[in-house]
Amino acid sequence: MTRLRMIRPLCLATLALSLAACAGTATRADPASMRGDHATMFTAQRTSLHREGDDLLTAGLGLAGLQAMTPPTFADPQRPTAAEARRRALWANWRGIADLAPGGGYGTLYGSLANVPGREFHALATVPGASQPHRVLVQVPDDFDRTRRCVVVTASSGSRGIYGAIAVAGAWGLPKGCAVAYTDKGAGTDYFDADAGLGIAADGTPADDRATSVFAPGGTSQGVALKHAHSGDNPEADWGRHVRQAAEFALQALGEAWPDDAPFDFASTRVIAVGISNGGGAVLRAAELDGDWLDAVVAGEPSIHADAPGARTLYDYTTEAALLMPCAQLALDDLPQPPLTAQVAPLWTARCAALRADGLIEGNDSAAQARSAREAMHARGWTDGALRAGALSTGFDLWRAIAATYASAYGRFDADAHPCGFRYAAQGADGAPRAATPPERAIWWSDGSGIPPGAGVGLVDTRMAGADPLLPGLQCLRALVDGDDASARRVQAGIAETRAGLPRRGLPVMVVHGADDGLIPMAFTSVPYARWAQAAGRDVRLWQVAHAQHFDGFLALPDYAARYVPLLPYVYAALDRVDAHLDGAGPLPADTAIATTPRGPGKALEPAHLAIPR
After folding, report:
1. Rounded CA separation 513/539 (Å)
2. What would the pLDDT profile of 209-238 be if each residue is shown by its tens digit?
3. Quick one: DSSP state of residue 120?
4. Which DSSP state fits 297?
5. Residues in CB range of 517: below 8 A, 6 or more apart
């Protein structure tokens, strides 16, 4: 339903964690009634001011500071302050999501790095039935528009920490005077060092003990435990509810920030949800929740599994890619960097031979085997564009890292009980697990992606052996897709809990996806989801962006910059369009295949390359 929210006269009411509309006004469901849940209880609440050299978007770093090749340092490498941990986390998350390289167009052609002073409200929340909390954060700019109340609610992409969507939601919403609400959706970088019995405190600094650690799992005796993988909650099943609770917290935070304008409720506050990657999947899961609490959704390159023709689960196509893609890429010419084919070809050739021995592909030599692997992936829905862009995921061993983490999450396995023997730990020069040091623990929250390897935490593969040492572990991970043992059934049950439902009727939804996405191919996700929702009469629109892959952050690599356009400009444009639509300024755009033009080697990005629909 399209409407312009006008601020109505509000009756006096007590601001509670769950806000109800006053009598005599048009009502919307309050947070507690949307699915019969009790009102959310927020714990570990704290507030911080960010002004004069420490703004909301960049912690005072600005574009030059974010472009720096080294992160902000800690005065004491073992004991960062909360402000130091936050600044470094913003540096890491901006660089992980956006293309900030000179010539890439950020801040000139699209996006904003404006100095936005304001306040941050932090807390922990727990969805009913979960054992571990998720972080919620609300940024309230000093120029929050109280006459046109708006909240942008978002979820971190990947398994990133609480600032993981700063470049997506914060960069669009804060300069417009909107509050921005974030959730790490039960993932994040609250790592726990089981050897030391220490985790991460609520302010992002190393905890002093187990009791003050945000995440402190049981059943882990050594190494490092991750909240996404080892919470025992399968957080992906609740990603929509995590988003909703972040929106609830935004209403509370606005009441605290502007008490003279309270209460803030869903009846008088515009709420737009946006996210990319599995953060995009999270906001689509929020779109299906009961209650008229959400006004519009924009999902970029979403990891979403619909019960629709062509749809595939993340775990299915990830484990398939982990096994087959290295071999299939040998049959492709002109792969982008990385990897450098000459360096990895021997390992990939060994993979081809192993796949042939297992009967998964055919061919009597490596070239024929590579062609067979490529044909097998084509038959399963992969395009050459996705295979070529997927060279980045192959080169960085990303498929194995994702599959190992998600197998633990779906099966609810403890850190010491992975069915394929994977563990996480600091590692010595020889790859052997060792105890983490205090300086290493100090950077986990800021630098980590939530899925090791990275930030000093390695993925320990206890099955490594043979000419292709990664193969035994990958075969085990793949067997969990359709196996019939107890571990496989646990993983399959967890995957089933993540299947998406239809968005609420009348809710405007825009989905934006790169046609060359090699990590979350749109043929398995956005396209079947959009067609399924449209067939059911839901207001879903799909933009398919030519020459866009999954990782804007990797457009800093010259070969990727030459070949691909960034996706963030289209996410921002979609937000502009749904916001205008809610203001009554026109319909949502139609489904569109956007014909972009790669900029080529050494050239700066220009508007003509993007061809953003107007």
Report:
1. 17
2. 999 999 999 876 789 999 999 999 999 999
3. E
4. E
5. 301, 386, 389, 548, 549, 550
Q: Which helix (H) or strand (E) holds 533?
A: helix 526-535
Q: What is the pLDDT of residue 261?
A: 94
Amino acid letter, residue 546: A
Question: For the chain, how many residues are written?
Answer: 614
Q: Work out the average pLDDT over 314-333.
A: 96
3-state DSSP helix/strand/coil percent for the chain, to nearest 5?
35, 15, 50
pLDDT of residue 340: 52
pLDDT at 339 > cutoff 90: no
Contact 228, 483 (CB under 8 A): no
Catalytic site positions: 277
Q: How far apart are CA 187 and CA 191, in angstroms?
A: 10
Cα–Cα–Cα angle for 7, 11, 17, rounded to 5 degrees: 85
Pairing assessment for the beta strands 179-183 and 150-155 based on DSSP bridges: parallel
Tens of pLDDT along 351-365? 999 999 999 999 999
Q: Per-residue pLDDT averaged across 410-427, rounded?
A: 96
Tokens of 264: 């803030």
**Residue 343 CB-density burial (10 A; 0-12 exposed, 13-18 middle, 19+ buried):** exposed
Q: Which contacts of 60-66 are long-range, i.e. CB under 8 A and separated by 24 or more positions?
A: 60/87, 61/87, 61/90, 61/91, 62/113, 62/115, 63/100, 63/106, 63/107, 63/113, 65/91, 66/90, 66/91, 66/94, 66/95, 66/100, 66/113
Share of the chain above pLDDT 90, in %: 88
Tokens of 222: 């050594």
Instruction: Single out the residue of 439, 398, 329, 402 nearest to residue 77, CA to CA.
Output: 439
Looking at the chain, the whole-number percentage of residues with pLDDT higher than 70 is 92
